[in-house]
Design a protein that fits this description.
Blueprint (H helix, E strand, L loop, with lengths): L8 H14 L12 E5 L11 H19 L3 E5 L1 E2 L3 H14 L9 H15 L2 H9 L9 E2 L3 H16 L3 E11 L4 E3 L4 E17 L5 E6 L10 E4 L13 E3 L6 E6 L11 E4 L5 H10 L25 H14 L3 E14 L7 E10 L6 H8 L5 E3 L3 H10 L4 E2 L1 E2 L9 E3 L7 E3 L3 H12 L10 E2 L3 E2 L1 H5 L2 H4 L10 H6 L4 E4 L4 H16 L6 E4 L3 E2 L16 H8 L1 H9 L8 E2 L2 H22 L3 E2 L6 H26 L3 H24 L7 E2 H18 L4 H11 L21 H23 L8 E6 L9 H8 L1 E6 L7 E6 L2 E6 L7 H26 L2 H6 L2 H28 L1
Parallel strand pairs: 1-2, 3-4, 9-11, 15-23, 22-23, 24-25, 26-27, 28-29
Antiparallel strand pairs: 5-6, 5-14, 7-8, 7-10, 7-13, 9-12, 10-11, 14-16, 17-21, 18-19, 18-20, 28-31, 30-31
């Protein structure tokens, strides 16, 4: 079989992915084996592959391929998330470009457009993952809006409502004016922004006196319903019981007292706007204040904004400042740093807003999730330091706002039968709702037409928190074979940015519905950043297209490049040089394979001693590396596992082992050694396969014709066996000896084809087991141990052992060598003199740190040893 000169990644990747799919290697069904299960963190259905996805899914593929090789029934469930806010925003924008306003459509008409969008763009990212080599069980692909998945979400809502854990409440919520929906607290990102502090004058009713109040949001004065002072603030004692007049709108509002007011902030007075600040809302309830909502859903001002009606809040902020100044109501402005809440999805500035919403009580639900991670260790976070973040979030959790003012998503299964806010029932379908409504009203005449379903959709996270259970049908049918076999899953690979959004909530749901953990280990990846430590993003233009990288470096090269620098939880400073390094590794392995397959094999020649020794050493080295690999996988140090394999293959296999067994030029290799070389190569391929699936499968089949059952993807992971550790340590000495010989050959221009003699004084009693290797790799004609120094020879040291290469055959210009050694001797003597001067300086010795002093003494010892060696070399040449 001819082997191509170059590794053609593109052709090979397509060939082997099709082969794996055709032979159904990725698919899993329950059987007698132990399951190993991963569920994919579902990317947005309309998303495309980015560097974060590349890293995350490469790690998952490494884990699943390794599990498959280790004999587990490996199941990796792929899927996508309907992403309510992001997808609806894209559909609305598309409709707008076509001249269609969402508000002119019925819900059904809008959802038809949303499904059309999803059918067109959904799943693109999953197809892109195939280019990466992701070995997902594609037959199990799920979408959070699949009928069975939606049914699971609705069933969960009804169950939690019936348990008294879901309630409807009029609360201050985070409003995203761009997406026109409420957000949970966790979806609000607080950013420090530089703004202004406006000092406004409020006239005291019936007087000529003014009260100055500082605010960052002057546009909200239209919603002011009180001014609050601290009862202990003597500056304002005279204002108790009085009223003030709001500038521009002229509303008369009471001056109230409450210790909530910080006397140190601003002017010590607070304007109270209950409809637009959560703390003001609390004050309003306490003091029975009027609530005036001044904003439309898009954060433009409504009719309460008078002549500013219809204008955006930030436009009004600029314009109203000018008007306030003109009427003498603006005392001054100051630059002010303020933390501003922004939408995690749209980046719009959040507007606090009072609204009727659905909430899930979290106080009791969260307790098992705290215990399993922080107390019993039943679920482990990798790295462990994220437990602090996890603890902070869960110990400070508030009720979860689970309703969204969107149409794309699971519609809340609450059905209203009357005009009152409490005139509703909750049921999985309208037929069950009708029965409940008839019972609630004691009116059998009610019909389905009398019921109106809540228009809001559920938070996307309320869907995906069921993911590890719902993908196996566990919510709808807890007795299903798949659910009982695959759940709980094993490992979850995700980013720390959704540790609370998704990971903690899945844990909560797992204990609530299954009574057990959803997974055992959570591997938290870092963010992929550029060389300047900036987060990769489209807006910065610093994020390469992953598919372009695969085209340029091959999927295996990109996978290796990403993983070599991807330690758990630590950000990756991505550089295309990493992928180039991965591609170079691919070429190194390919060329090593070509070298082996290019050897002529003889069944008659005996095995050289050097080859026998080399095989024994490499078998030990491979086993030692396997121990390290297993330990690193156990600790979720995936990059360390890859680095161990990388060094084994590049340094030990390619640079040493193949050199040790390589036959002489145009000579055959013995059959025993060749077969062992193939066996070692196959072991390497098994270790490499999870990281470099395409290259390894290609070489595996080029080694021999194999059936589908014998494919590498379903072969057996190397077995851990006892090994002789002394072989490994002894070989380290051998490397130094060979290095010493090669250095002399290089320095003295002695070609490798010219055999040389080697003599040695074995003072260290180093093992002679590898002498045949030294003889071969040094091209030594005779290797002899002696008891005394050899005159007329070049020498070098390895530890206390001294090695001599006798001068013969006129290979060396003796006079030039003596001159060179003499110059080196003079330099070293000068260096020794300077070191000894330091050590004889009492002041230096008394004041120098212990480490510095030890370092100088070591320099002295090294210089003395070097001088002795040079003097001996010079004497031997004379």
């Amino acid at each position: 079989m001819s082997i191509p000169a170059q590794f053609d990644a593109k052709t090979i990747e397509n060939k082997w992915y099709d082969y794996w799919m055709k032979n159904n290697y990725f698919h899993s069904e329950p059987d007698h084996r132990t399951p190993y299960t991963i569920v994919i963190p579902p990317p947005n259905v309309t998303g495309v592959l980015h560097m974060g996805h590349m890293l995350n899914n490469t790690i998952q593929d490494v884990l699943i391929r390794r599990a498959r090789l280790k004999g587990f029934n490996a199941c990796w469930v792929p899927g996508t998330d309907h992403a309510s806010i992001a997808t609806e925003a894209k559909v609305v924008a598309k409709l707008k470009a076509e001249g269609i306003n969402k508000n002119d459509l019925t819900r059904e008409e809008f959802l038809a457009h949303a499904w059309e969008w999803t059918d067109k763009y959904g799943g693109v990212i999953l197809d892109q993952l195939k280019k990466l080599g992701a070995s997902c069980d594609w037959e199990r692909t799920k979408f959070t809006m699949d009928p069975d998945m939606s049914a699971s979400v609705i069933k969960s809502f009804v169950d939690l409502y019936n348990k008294g854990l879901i309630y409807r409440g009029y609360r201050m919520v985070n409003w995203d004016p761009e997406a026109k929906t409420t957000l949970s607290d966790e979806e609000v990102i607080y950013e420090e922004q530089q703004g202004k502090l406006f000092f406004l004058n409020y006239k005291i009713e019936g007087t000529e006196e003014f009260l100055t109040i500082a605010t960052t949001r002057p546009e909200t004065i239209f919603g002011d319903t009180a001014i609050c002072i601290n009862p202990n603030d003597e500056r304002f004692t005279h204002l108790k019981g009085k009223s003030a007049i709001v500038p521009i709108c002229g509303r008369v509002i009471p001056i109230i007292e409450d210790e909530y007011v910080d006397v140190e902030f601003g002017t010590g007075c607070l304007k109270v706007t209950p409809a637009h600040d959560v703390n003001d809302k609390a004050l309003g309830e306490k003091h029975n204040l009027e609530i005036v909502d001044i904003f439309n859903e898009d954060a433009t001002l409504n009719s309460f904004g008078l002549h500013y009606q219809g204008k955006d809040r930030f436009v009004v902020r600029t314009e109203i400042a000018k008007e306030l100044e003109e009427i003498g109501a603006l005392a001054k402005t100051e630059i002010h740093l303020n933390k501003v809440g922004t939408s995690e999805r749209t980046k719009a500035v959040i507007e606090p807003r009072l609204s009727d919403q659905w909430f899930l009580k979290m106080e009791d639900l969260v307790k098992p999730a705290i215990k399993s991670v922080l107390e019993t260790g039943e679920i482990k976070l990798h790295p462990k330091r994220f437990e602090n973040t996890y603890a902070h979030w869960l110990n400070n959790i508030r009720d979860w706002n689970i309703s969204r003012q969107l149409w794309w998503g699971q519609q809340i299964p609450a059905y209203y039968y009357g005009d009152g806010k409490e005139d509703f029932v909750v049921a999985e379908n309208i037929e069950d709702a009708l029965k409940l409504a008839q019972e609630a009203t004691n009116n059998k005449q009610l019909t389905i037409n009398d019921l109106k379903q809540d228009v809001d959709a559920l938070d996307t996270w309320f869907s995906s928190w069921l993911w590890p259970m719902s993908v196996f049908g566990g919510i709808m049918d807890p007795e299903s074979a798949d659910y009982k076999y695959y759940y709980p899953t094993n490992d979850l690979v995700t980013g720390p940015d959704i540790l609370f959004f998704w990971v903690a909530r899945m844990i909560i749901a797992g204990y609530e519905y299954a009574g057990e953990k959803p997974f055992t280990n959570v591997y938290l990846t870092g963010l992929v950043r550029d060389k300047q430590r900036r987060k990769m993003s489209k807006s910065l233009g610093n994020s390469p297209d992953p598919l372009d990288l695969i085209e340029k470096f091959g999927a295996d090269g990109v996978r290796v490049g990403l993983l070599l620098s991807a330690s758990a939880g630590n950000d990756i400073m991505f550089d295309e040089e990493l992928c180039l390094q991965g591609k170079s590794f691919t070429n190194k392995i390919w060329n090593a394979f070509k070298l082996i397959k290019g050897w002529e094999v003889s069944e008659t020649i005996p095995q050289p001693e050097s080859s026998k020794v080399a095989i024994e050493w490499y078998e030990a080295k491979l086993q030692q590396t396997l121990v390290d690999i297993e330990d690193n996988f156990e600790k979720y140090r995936i990059s360390d596992s890859l680095m161990a394999i990388y060094k084994l293959v590049w340094d030990d296999f390619c640079s040493w082992f193949l050199e040790m067994i390589k036959p002489a030029y145009q000579q055959p290799i013995d059959k025993i050694t060749f077969d062992k070389a193939i066996e070692m190569l196959e072991s390497n391929l098994k270790l490499l396969h999870p990281f470099m699936p395409f290259l390894t499968e290609e070489i595996w089949h080029l080694i021999a014709d194999r059936t589908a059952e014998e494919a590498l993807i379903v072969s057996i992971w190397p077995e851990l066996k006892p090994f002789n550790a002394s072989l490994i340590s002894d070989f380290e000495n051998t490397i130094e000896v060979i290095s010493g010989i090669r250095t002399i050959r290089k320095d003295k221009n002695i070609p490798f084809k010219d055999a040389i003699e080697l003599k040695a004084i074995n003072s260290e009693n180093i093992s002679t087991y590898f002498d045949s290797i030294v003889t071969k790799l040094g091209n030594i004609s005779a290797f002899e141990y002696v008891s005394a120094k050899v005159d007329g020879a070049l020498s070098f040291r390895v530890k206390s052992n001294e090695y001599f290469i006798p001068i013969s055959g006129g290979n060396i210009d003796v006079e030039a060598e003596i001159a060179k050694l003499t110059a080196e001797l003079v330099y070293t003597q000068g260096f020794l003199k300077s070191v000894q001067a330091k050590l004889s300086n009492e002041k230096f010795v008394a004041g120098a740190p212990e480490k510095v002093l030890a370092n100088e003494k070591q320099k002295e010892a090294d210089a003395l040893a070097k001088i002795a060696t040079i003097e001996q070399s010079i004497a031997g040449l004379k």
